[in-house]
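Dissemination and training. As part of the outreach component of the grant, students in the summer workshop were shown how a complex can be specified as a set of sequence lines and then modelled as a single object. The example used during the hands-on session is reproduced here so that future cohorts can follow it. Participants entered these lines:
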Amino acid sequence: MSVILWAILAIVVVLAILAVTTRHTRTALPPIELPPGETLPTAPLQRLVRWSLALGLLPLIAAASIVASVGPVAYDGDDTLRLLGTMLLITSMAVLVIPMVLGGAWAGRDDGRLDERDRAILTRAPTGQAAAMLVVLAAWIIALQESYRGAPGIPEAYLYLMFWSCLLVSLIVSNASILLAYRRS
Amino acid sequence: MPRATITNHIRRLRFDAGEMTQQALAEAVGCTRQTIIVLEQGRYVPSLALAFRIAHTFNRTIEEVFELVEDR
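and obtained this result:
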């Protein structure tokens, strides 16, 4: 079976297990009823996370496109490309980490921007990070093991990609958890 | 231990208090309007501090605002 298929299969199995577990353990909540024509107001933290995700994903997609277009090994060997890619990845990381940093500052300042529910949502945000990183690592390990079976070694470019993918996925999941928590509670 | 649900009468109390708006209540107790909306609809259980603030806003005791319903 192709490496990509192995990786996809691993991710699908893990996500299916997570989805089933979550569905069985979560208490069903009544739907939010609002007067006709009215929408649920958004909290400042919610707006911040939406912007952060929207803007943080753009440099990540750009960096991923560069790596995908030339291949990981060629990318790693080209100093200009690697510098450009790393700058894009650092930008993505910096933007994605803003809600945690700014949210933490708002929570500490007690100026009314965040209430107790916002604080609880912010505190629970990192809950899914470890699981997300494990899924990404599992996908990488399966893909690399199947690709380089019998080979003397694995190109070091993959270490760089594994690091960045784990880091950025953990930040994306953390931000997405905040948006999901606002929908679920 | 049997599971329990905490319900509240915030919507009725707002109506009784001269149709106080959700925004006005949110400002009075120091939370967002979104929190008042999810509270009223039973999707969020407040902390004791917020529960007391809401009760004080309506000049009620906490038991008059919130109710513990034991699930059977």
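The CA atoms of residues 16 and 22 of chain A lie 10 Å apart. Students were then asked to discuss how this feature might be tested experimentally.
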